[in-house]
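ok, trying the design again with the full structure, not the truncated one.
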């Protein structure tokens, strides 16, 4: 099977390129080779490659920046997925698309399930929700995987931001009243690859986050504990760290449906999975600790 992977340089895309090779011929493109903001370029690439499946790991992810760039956010997160879905339908292929926990407003006190009504608070979430809706309306065979608080050892994410700040400051102030689920990009990629191996692939919308929940403050403290960095983390309220975009106060996802539907094991608890990253010594390497500090 020929697979077209978009967003190869992103957190999930980078992991996917290494996993999908076992499933067939992989044509992996980054933004320089296929800019999702350029509709003609997207359609041309799909028609040239004629894949059996498209995995769209590309997205506009600048939550705050989207408030001042709504046209670009919608072009990448809504218009491009609609176009991809239309091409997939014409080819009789299959589309894997990634969405976000930020399609929810955070008012629910228990984890969100797939049937909960979305109500995004910011341009980013609204653009991602529009992309979801366009895919569903297309008639294409597809699966939409909603992820949450994605991190990796590369790219731009909370994990790397915290480690970078900790090298320069002994004390950090981190929001402690927003709750979500930190999720390792590799786990999302592995789940995707397992799903693509199935003879009877699931279709529809599924949550694909780690188990458990955390605040940004708890996430930061666990990062520094594993990296063995003596950083003081002061818990603050969202109001003390205002930004252009509103965030949901709780966007915890219940990701059990996919396992019940397919038998594919759900991603484990977020602390366990972050620890798995640390077992590779990636966290401590990124934290800049020398061998004598590792114990």
């Amino acid at each position: 099977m020929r697979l077209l992977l978009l967003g190869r340089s992103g957190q999930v895309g980078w992991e996917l390129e290494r996993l999908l090779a076992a499933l067939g011929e992989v044509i992996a493109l980054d933004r320089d080779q296929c800019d999702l903001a350029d509709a003609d370029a997207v359609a041309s690439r799909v028609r040239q490659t004629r894949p059996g499946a498209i995995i769209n790991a590309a997205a506009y992810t600048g939550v705050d920046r989207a408030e001042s760039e709504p046209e670009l956010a919608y072009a990448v997160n809504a218009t491009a997925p609609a176009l991809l879905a239309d091409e997939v339908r014409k080819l009789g292929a299959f589309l894997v698309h990634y969405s976000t926990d930020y399609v929810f407003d955070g008012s629910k006190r228990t984890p969100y399930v797939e049937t909960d009504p979305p109500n995004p608070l910011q341009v980013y979430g609204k653009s991602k929700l529009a992309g979801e809706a366009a895919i569903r309306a297309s008639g294409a065979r597809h699966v939409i995987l909603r992820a949450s608080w994605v991190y990796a050892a590369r790219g731009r994410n909370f994990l790397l931001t915290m480690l970078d700040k900790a090298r320069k400051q002994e004390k950090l102030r981190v929001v402690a009243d927003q709750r979500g689920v930190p999720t390792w990009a590799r786990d999302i990629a592995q789940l995707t690859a397992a799903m693509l191996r199935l003879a009877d692939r699931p279709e529809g919308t599924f949550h694909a986050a780690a188990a458990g929940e955390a605040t940004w403050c708890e996430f930061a403290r666990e990062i520094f504990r594993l990296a063995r960095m003596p950083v003081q983390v002061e818990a603050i309220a969202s109001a003390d760290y205002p930004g252009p975009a509103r965030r949901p106060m709780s966007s915890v996802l219940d990701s059990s449906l996919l396992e019940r539907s397919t038998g594919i094991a759900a991603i484990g608890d977020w602390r366990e999975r972050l620890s798995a990253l640390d077992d590779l010594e990636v966290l401590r390497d990124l934290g800049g600790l020398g061998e004598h500090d590792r114990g």
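Keeping the full-length input from now on. Residues 167 and 288 are 8 Å apart (CA to CA).
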